[in-house]
Amino acid sequence: GCGEQKKEEAPKAESAVAGKTLRLAIDADPVSLDPHVQLSGGMLQYSHMVFDPLVRWTKDMKFEPRLAESWEQVDPTTLRFHLRKGVTFHSGNPFTAKDVAWTLARLKQAIDYKGLYEPFGEPVIVDDHTIDIKTVRPYGLTLNMCTYIFPMDSAFYTGTDDKGLPKDANVKTEYSFANGNESGTGPFMVTSYEPGQKWVLKRFPNYWDKDTGNVSEIVLTPITEDATRVAALLAGDVDWIMPVPPQDYARIRATEKVKLITMPGTRVITFQMNVNRVEAFKDKRVREAFVRAVNNVGIVQTIMKGDATPAFQNSPQGYAGHIADLAPLYDLEKAKQLMKDAGYEQGFTVSMIAPNNRYVNDEKIAQAVAAMLAKINVKVELRTMPKAQFWDEFDAQVADVQMIGWHADTEDSANYIEYLNACPNKETGWGQYNSANYCNAKVDELVLAAGGETDMAKRAAMLQEAERMLYDDFAFIPLHWQMLSWAASNKVANAEEIINVMDFPYFGDLNME
Amino acid sequence: MFAFIIRRISQAVLVMLVISVIGFAIKQNVGDPVREITGISVSAAEREQLRDQLGLNDPFPVQWARFLGKAVQGDLGNSFYFKRPALEVILSKAPATLELVLATSIIIVLLSVPMGIYAAVKPKSWLSRLFMGASIVGVSIPVFLTAILLIYIFSVGLGWLPSYGRGQLVTLFPGWDTGFLTKDGLLHLVMPSLALTSIMLPLFIRLIRAEMKEVLESEYIKFAIAKGLRPWRVLLVHGFKNTLMPVITVGGVQLGTMIAFTILTETVFQWKGMGSMFIEAVERADSSLMVAYLVFVGFVFVTVNTVVDLIYGLVNPMVRVAGRK
Amino acid sequence: MRETLVSIQNVSKHFDISGGLLDQLSLSGGRLTRTRTLVRAVNSVSFDIRSGETLSVVGESGCGKSTLGRTVLGIYPPTDGTIHYRGRRIDNLPPKGWLPYRTRMQMVFQDPYASLNPRMPVRKILEEPVRFHNRGIKDNEVKDRVADVMLQVGVDPDWADRFPHEFSGGQRQRISIARALVVDPEFIVADEPIAALDVSIQAQILNLLMDAQESRGLTYLFISHDLSVVRHISTRVAVMYLGTLCELAPVKELFDNPRHPYTRALLSAIPRLGNKGFEHVRLKGEIPTPINLPEGCVFHGRCPKVHERCIKEVPIPVDHGGGVFVACHAAEEGLV
Amino acid sequence: MDNKNILSVRDLSVNFRLRHGDLPAVRNVSFDLAQGERLGLVGESGAGKSVTGFSILGLVSKPGYIAGGQVLFQGVDLASMSQEQLRDIRGNRISMIFQDPMMTLNPVLTIGTQMVETLMAHRRITRRDAEIIALDKLRKVHISSPERRLKQYPHELSGGMRQRIVIAIALLTEPALIIADEPTTALDVTIQAEIMDLLLHLCRAERMGLILITHDLAVVSQVTERIAVMYAGTIVEMGKTADIIGYPSHPYTRGLLAALPQSANGRRLNQIPGSMPSLRSIPSGCAFQNRCSSCEEVCRGSVPILEPKQKGCLAACHLLD
Amino acid sequence: MQFIKRFANSYLLFSFLRDPVAVTSFTVLLILGVASFAAPLIAPYSPYDMHTIELLDSEKPPVWQPGGDTRFVLGTDTQGRDMFSTMLYGMRVSILIGFGAVALQAAMGIIVGLLAGYRGGRIDSVLMRMADVQLSFSTYMVAIFFGALFQATFGMGAYADLAVPMLIVVIGFAEWPQYARTVRASVLAEKRKEYVEAAKVIGLSPTRIMWRHILPNTLTPVLVISTVQVANAIMSEAALSFIGLGMPVHKPSLGSLIKAGFDYIFSGSWWITIFPGIALVVLILSINLLGDWLRDFLNPKLYKG
Ligand SMILES: Nc1ncnc2c1ncn2[C@@H]1O[C@H](COP(=O)(O)OP(=O)(O)OP(=O)(O)O)[C@@H](O)[C@H]1O
Ligand SMILES: Nc1ncnc2c1ncn2[C@@H]1O[C@H](COP(=O)(O)OP(=O)(O)OP(=O)(O)O)[C@@H](O)[C@H]1O
Ligand SMILES: [Mg+2]
Ligand SMILES: [Mg+2]
């Protein structure tokens, strides 16, 4: 029975005594306490709260030392890190180079990461606080990848749990020790969590970085419904929401007690025109006509409410491959002319698919594009579907025109092209999401070469050239880079400082009034 | 009695078999869970391997048979997202839904009985007309619209009531956190239960009114009046007790509707119960959880109806003696 | 003696009300047993109906009068026994085989409100049987025939397009009789045709039935619990109790000299104009249900003349001479 | 008036308020009942017998209302009483018995509850004592093992038993008058005889008045001392039972008696042509005019009033003098 | 002709005309119905015609609001579609699905109910067990099942085209037991009436008795529950669309319009969701009110199954 009622300490009451509580609402919560279980935005957000990476991105895409105090390139395949001293894990264990090596080894086993860490070799522990990270070949993105190395407490995760299962097991779908327990060095410790419902994270008292944020507790609630999430903020039930649906930007901006922070993001939204399915797409003029028929600036202005950046290429600003001076392409008259030239004045019918709950306004964008294509007499049979069903269909290339959004896990231009525009190749895995079946050997060559280039300037030039080729060849229909958005109550003091283009706010640095 | 129990059990089994087949058919089609649990840049081969590992590549009958085999032992599969047995997840979400349903039921019982009786006794009074008018408006507004309007008015507009979630909870006993014992929890309960009430209450008012009207015309009511009993005794003991039976029966059937409506209500209010869990499971292609939920709901439905029939037997002496027809 | 029109021999009709297989199963003493629940509505009843007569069946509610009537008409197949019509066996005929008899045997029902289809105008109700049994008959012919019958039963043919609810109870009963007469039958089962009617209307309907019998030479199986009516119109009377035949006798004989103890009790209970108070034969106990029929004589639990034999042995109807048949041990032994 | 009369109904009219206007179900009905007297109210279906009976206790159902007249019970007018005041009379001084014992008893309450509640509504009495009285009355109506019956539900009993229980309920408070509305029409002849016998004896023994409503002239004649014959809402003839049966004067009563099949000899029955007019369209003048074989001009002109005719009977007919 | 005369003189018409609520709701329903089915003639724009849709016209408020555009009386939605036109077309879809689903339900339910009630015995118990099982899932459950199933089997390709028939089938299928039970219960009641026996004595075949004699007498309760069912079906469709299992956004029903607008309610573009919301409520309300009147008028004791 319920004879003994154990009253759980009320979070609100407690926080009044101990310090500041940040009530955080996210569209989806982290799926696990194990940072390696999945590579996703949510997990990275979590990792930055509970763990610390060796280095991390600053707001302007520079590297900032965290657990690594400094680093130097020893040789083209070796990067030496000097680790911070006196850091302890949540378990109380001290942090050493061994933990870094252990974590890297685990990353190389993790399904979601093994591809990314494929260029990495065995690290060499120099001493307790020095480690050499090796790559098997010269690799331009070693530091980028080190932002994903969140050292885990190797002692804590070694051995077997009370079920007799190994503690270090990385399991996606079932119970594992790491899924339910954490020991990182990060600013917060998970004190309770109910997946999909509520997380409570408390400040780690022995956190090494003393002069930083003042949030003593984070209560994280996933709220999937956009409108409800916004309502919760407006009603003062939460302090911080992310993401913010674009349609509510105006309202939040207009509301006194809350503020909206936006930032051009790096996820590009595009449509791919499948040349294998539609003969006409092999004709560059038709592709051009499609691209020119789509008023992506208009879409940004109306559907996205101006809160997105129109794109004409994959790479966003700040990325190596970004070309600053690409001209807008929308030109309906020219598009019509091109269709006529190509012999398709009467147009034709294409099928199109898009998800309806994956990207910001994905369904509406697809509809708008369909309406725009109608103007060049292309009849679009549009189908939208939940993301759960979308990817299978996307992979099967069921439609002539398919929407895809992409964010580079490596925060680098090459990643876009490798996945979206490279010639599909089962062995290398390139062009895995190239449902256009667009293939331009020159582009592939350039990107491949850039991968081995450690001179950053040269590398950038190569990537830019590849991007320009795609632009000139009308390889895909670019739309925009999604805006990243957060909204917070005015209690939050330095919200602008902790956010970044990767969409993992550094809540450890947050200050609240 | 014996036949009744056997029939119920076989019905329950049948219901759950059907659900599991249909659930499985959907599961096959609702999307690829592997997609949901891996990052986007994981290679196709890796994914295929994971799929094999999870048995998702087996033919439908094999998967179904495996599911049944485990289900018999009480194992409804593992939720990919929660990384726990699906049944466990459902049970952990059940209190939220049950509290919502309970609060709604309490409101419904407290309101529908007096309102229904009043409307039956005084059908021409303006208050009855008001009840009936309001109730027909109530059933005509879809529950999600009601929910949206409530949020719009009371949370966003007036800021009186919290807009989402269950608020502050207290552990009643392990596995059951209740919002009934805190002011915050109760405040959070107000709007979701109102939304749910708005669609269910009219049904019961109308039902009670109709049944009561019929009962009031019966000979035994006339006889009770002729015996010189007090009006309240005539209404409540002689009238309402007879009305109760159909109301209970319908109430049992309506529970299914109510559970369906919780899906909508919970989604709008982010009430973390079984309903929103189900919708999220669909979105996440967490297929085991989906199937488990459907089977579970089927089970609850059959159980509740069985209980309702048993209660019916307690109230109605004719059933008690004869055994169910 | 007139010829036998309908001959009923050892007819029984049992209804299985045990429901599905599941309902029949029960746990008793840890073992699964299957029990069937039978309503023994009619048990081994035999008698002949002679052409042109009115044979009445009387008895208390639930004694199987209606069931017997329906069994004779083939609405229920008998569980046991045989029925012959003009010497031809009819109880085992397939539905098609029954068709010729449908015009010869008809039925009039008790409830004038339920016996006419409320969604059909009277014309349709009356025309349907004619058209059904005379394929290809001309429209006027049907109309004429219906008008004739309507006139005969005393309903204005101009009202044929009205619906049943526009008529009074007595008129409806006339229409119901018209429907039976319209196929020109020779035998009619009238199941309490006047029980639901007012006294003044009762007389009209009884007269109508008697007139029709006279003009068309009809034979009636007249079912009623109103003994004074039965006494008035019957040629012979059969008394039933709990599905069995107690006594069958010419009307005068039965009323003047009832032999079965049950018949006596029944007759003594008839309210009589002008009698003061009640001097009826009191029966003990209640009528048992036809589900649990008593052993031996079904009346033994209530019979004032009960003795040992009655409890063990089922009495069979014995000819007492003068067309009187009594199924009673006591009567047989001269104790009554 | 005669003080021995416990009940005097004076010019009672009851209307039903329907969509198309008022329906006069009972028109100017007057009769008296002496202490312990048994009166029969007979007539065809719809003649207004039940409505008359119900209106005595103010029980006419919804659209119906007492349009005029008085119901003097022991000198007080029940027709002008409030429902609250009437409650003291109902089931206490005047009891009712309804037609169908299946429907009269509440299926979900035990016999005991339904008996005890009646007593507790009218007497300051404990449940225990109420049960003792109930048992006593059950014995009076010859119910076997009454203790057990108290715990049973109505459907567990046979029809005859149920009607006896209804009678027992009516007797509980030792009323001065019982109104029985067709108490035996739903029952078999043998049981009818028993119930009627019982009622007759109880009324005699307890000196209770009885208004027996029925359409069966034979039954009435065996139980009551006086008979009132109703037709289309009015009493057309009233008098001593033996007089009415033996020497009916009103053409309707005569017709009715002649229509009864009484012996096996007469082939054709005397029939009254047509049927009772609907209350909506009662002809002006005598309501029976269209069915009366000796109808004259005067019958169409004015409504005949109930007045003493030959042999001490009261009859409402222009043609009798 | 005679039928019309009979109808004109009927009590039905008389009491209908005397009830202002019934007359009003019938008028409203008639207007909504006619307007939505004449949408191609009435509506200023066609939401299906991509050529006429200008993205730049999106989210225009109704004319009386600042920023309103006289071309779009009730404003535009996020795609730049005229709300008024879109609602008319959407209502057409909703009504079509509502009535279609009920027709299907009724057809299935009547056949099953008639068979089960008249034949009884094994057929009856099998059919009614099926209905029990079916009732164990609520409408939404069934709809969710089949919605997902349909989407999956036909692929999304045919989905948009098949959505209307699919929803009709789904909602129709989900609720047939209601009809089956109602019809069965009234068949059981009718079957016992003597007119059925009279038909047997005439020698009519069971089929003929079932369809010609019994069926017409069971239609009153069917009619009465039909109004409620139509309202429910429209509502179910809206709910399904709301959770994303109904009509696609570019072939909207009222429900999917409400859903599409739901995200915008806090951002100030209330008209995108409120207008279809009002239209839906008015539609359902008028059907319900009419049904209420019909029920009061026919007042059949609705047989409880
Ligand atoms: N179709 C049936 N199924 C089951 N039992 C039946 C059926 N028809 C009749 N019975 C039962 O058979 C018995 C005899 O019924 P029947 O209707 O023949 O009696 P009855 O003498 O006509 O009575 P009443 O005077 O009330 O009409 C009753 O107990 C009745 O319940
Ligand atoms: N609730 C009512 N609403 C409308 N009219 C009614 C109502 N109750 C009775 N009446 C009318 O009053 C008239 C008299 O009815 P009443 O019940 O007194 O007849 P009755 O003589 O008792 O007949 P029966 O023998 O059928 O019981 C009938 O014509 C009936 O139409
Ligand atoms: Mg019968
Ligand atoms: Mg009456």
TrEMBL record, chain B:
Coiled coil: none annotated. The chain crosses the membrane at residues 9-26, 100-121, 130-154, 186-205, 247-271, 291-315. Keywords: Cell membrane, Membrane, Transmembrane, Transmembrane helix, Transport. It is a multi-pass membrane protein. InterPro entries: BPD_transp_1_N, MetI-like, MetI-like_sf. GO terms for cellular component: plasma membrane. The keyword Transferase does not apply. Residues 94-312 form the ABC transmembrane type-1 domain. It is found in: Cell membrane. It holds the Pfam family BPD_transp_1. GO terms for biological process: transmembrane transport. Belongs to the binding-protein-dependent transport system permease family. PANTHER family: ABC TRANSPORTER PERMEASE PROTEIN, DIPEPTIDE TRANSPORT SYSTEM PERMEASE PROTEIN DPPB-RELATED. This is ABC-type transporter, integral membrane subunit. It comes from Desulfocurvibacter africanus subsp. africanus str. Walvis Bay. The lineage of its organism: Bacteria, Pseudomonadati, Thermodesulfobacteriota, Desulfovibrionia, Desulfovibrionales.
From TrEMBL, chain C:
One of its GO terms (biological process) is peptide transport. The keyword ATP-binding applies. It comes from the Bacteria. Residues 27-267 form the ABC transporter domain. Keywords: ATP-binding, Nucleotide-binding, Transport. One of its GO terms (molecular function) is ATP hydrolysis activity. Gene3D superfamilies: P-loop containing nucleotide triphosphate hydrolases (3.40.50.300). SUPFAM superfamilies: P-loop containing nucleoside triphosphate hydrolases. Belongs to the ABC transporter superfamily. This is Oligopeptide/dipeptide ABC transporter, ATPase subunit. It comes from Desulfocurvibacter africanus subsp. africanus str. Walvis Bay.
UniProtKB/TrEMBL annotation, chain D:
It is found in: Cell inner membrane. Residues 9-257 form the ABC transporter domain. GO terms for cellular component: plasma membrane. One of its GO terms (biological process) is peptide transport. PROSITE patterns: ABC_TRANSPORTER_1, ABC_TRANSPORTER_2. GO terms for molecular function: ATP binding; ATP hydrolysis activity. The keyword Magnesium does not apply. It is a peripheral membrane protein. Keywords: ATP-binding, Cell membrane, Membrane, Nucleotide-binding, Transport. Pfam families: ABC_tran, oligo_HPY. NCBIfam families: oligo_HPY (TIGR01727). Belongs to the ABC transporter superfamily. This is Oligopeptide/dipeptide ABC transporter, ATPase subunit.
UniProtKB/TrEMBL annotation, chain E:
Coiled coil: none annotated. It is found in: Cell membrane. It holds the Pfam family BPD_transp_1. One of its GO terms (cellular component) is plasma membrane. The chain crosses the membrane at residues 21-43, 93-118, 130-150, 269-291. It comes from the Bacteria. InterPro entries: BP-dependent_transpt_permease, MetI-like, MetI-like_sf, OppC_N. It is a multi-pass membrane protein. CDD domains: TM_PBP2. SUPFAM superfamilies: MetI-like. Keywords: Cell membrane, Membrane, Transmembrane, Transmembrane helix, Transport. GO terms for biological process: transmembrane transport. Residues 91-291 form the ABC transmembrane type-1 domain. PROSITE patterns: ABC_TM1. The keyword Transferase does not apply. Belongs to the binding-protein-dependent transport system permease family. This is ABC-type transporter, integral membrane subunit.
